[in-house]
Every structure is written in structure tokens, then in C-alpha cells.
Amino acid sequence: MADSILLGRAPRPTDGAQLAKRIRTLVIAAEPAGIACTSGIEAELDGADVVRLHLDLTGFVLAGEHDRDRVRLEPQGATVAREPAVLRDLRVHADPMRVSGAEVTLEASLADVPFAWIETDNRELAVELGRPSAARPLHGHARVSVPKEQLGRAVLGLAESALAERGISVSRLDIDVEATGPRDLRLTLDGKVRKGLLGASVRGSASASIDDRMGVTLTDIHVDSGNPLVAAMLSAARGRIERFEGRRIDLASELPEGIRVDDVQVTVTDAVTIEARLA
């Protein structure tokens, strides 16, 4: 993810209508060429602070990594001025939006999100998200839902950039999730990956148990490949993989300061739905 997001030319907007117009330009740059922007955007400013920003991203199509207009998403100049601000009320709705062909339903609400207006040496205007703190934590909730048969596509679309940075491409990723208890899941994946000249199918599975203190315990972890060379490499790494067997991962302690997840619920029906609340 970019450190800062381009919002046109400096100076910063002075009213909500101007800010909404600039955000619409950003949304268009994040969609594939030729897609009509249908997003609804409402904004209200109070000086540098954003009183409210409500985004209806229903129908939004997230472009693939190579289709996004990076010149219109990220500033090209060096930062010469920074003005701290707060986004007091952020609400995002999508029913649905499309990520890598998957229909993702989203409802999110956040309060008191710190950010800064950035001006560059070539008069670009950008926003840079700040870090919450113990004295000023984030509050809100989020609910995201993806049809089970489309889950792999959605995950692949979101992970595409991180994988590309490691020289890994994935042509196929199928993920299945089965609820085996109120807080217990069984996950399986089957994918086709390539790194350099080496391509292979990879299969994996694991069981996950989530406790009421935001801990996840993984068991019955298995990873294999139909490619003998890759299978041998995975076998050599089995010791590192097995270190996660039965180990409780404290997700709460891994979160940055100022972000505390009070509760997480995972529901599996025809769709996989994750709900989280920030304390």
C-alpha cells in the first residue's frame, strides 16, 4: 500500500463538495479503464478535519495491480509540508463491490482516524494515514462477506501486490472454509503458483480455533505440491511449518498501538462473513 494517496493539486479542499470531487477522481483511477464510476460520495469539512466521509462503493470494481493508474494514485514529488487532521466519521458501504471478479459485500464504520494533508514540491496534494495511539485509539466496526466459491479470487486480488513484490504469480487459487464449531474452522486451498521459471500446484489445509481473547490456534497443518521438486522443498521446510502446529497466535498483541479488536465473529454459510469490532 502506498504511504500517501494523491488527491490532485494543492491547496487542500475547503469544503465537502470539493473533497468529494477529488475522491471521485481517485476512485476512477483505482478502477479499470472504461468502467463508469457509480460510487456515491458525501463529505463535510471543518477546517483541516473531515467531519464525515461516507462512501457507497456498490458497483465499484477494483482494478488489478497492472491496470491501476499509479500516476493518479500516488504523488510523484517529495513532501514539503504536512498538516495533521482527523477523519471523525468514516462509513463505507458496498453491496457488492468487485475484487478480482469476486462479489464482496462490505459495511464499515470508523471514528477518529488520524491523517495528514501532504503537499509535495511539485504542488501535489496527498493524504497520509496516521497511526492511532493509546491516547487516541480507533473505534468502529466492520463486516465483510464473500461467497464461498469466490473467496480465493478475492484473497488473490488483495494479495496480488505483496506476492508480486516477491516475484510470485498465482494463476489460480481455490479456498474452501468449513465451520466445524462456533469458533472453529477448517480451511483448504488449492492453487497454481509460479516463481521465475518454476511453476507448480500447491495444496494446503489446516484447522483454526479462535478463542474469546483474540487468539488463533492452528492444528492439522498440511502443505504439499504436485511438482516433485516443490514437494521436496516443502518437505525440507516442514520443520518450520510444524512449529505452528498447536501454537496459539495472539492476534491482539500483534496489533499496532491504538487498535484493539474487542470481538471477531466468523460465519460460514453460502458465504464467508467476518465481523469485527474495535474497542
Please, what is the average pLDDT? 88
For the record, the count of structural domains works out to 2
Please state roughly what percent of the residues sit in beta strands, choosing from under 5%, 5-15%, 15-25%, 25-35%, 35-45% or over 45%.
Answer: over 45%
Order of helices and strands: EHEEEEEEEHEEEEHHEHEE
Radius of gyration: 21 Å
From the helix content, strand content and strand pairing, which structural class follows? alpha+beta
What is the CA-CA span between the terminal residues?
Answer: 25 Å
Which geometry do the CA atoms define? globular
Instruction: Characterize the quaternary organization of these chains.
Output: single chain
> Uncertain regions: pLDDT < 50 for 5+ in a row?
none
Q: How does the major sheet shape up?
A: 10 strands, mixed
| Number of H/I helices | 5
Total strand count, please?
15
Helix share bin:
10-25%
What's the topology here?
Layout: E1 5-9, H1 16-30, E2 40-46, E3 49-56, E4 61-62, E5 79-99, E6 102-120, E7 124-129, E8 139-147, H2 151-165, E9 168-181, E10 184-195, E11 198-210, E12 215-225, H3 228-236, H4 238-242, E13 248-250, H5 251-254, E14 261-268, E15 271-278
Protein name: DUF2993 domain-containing protein
Organism: Agrococcus sediminis
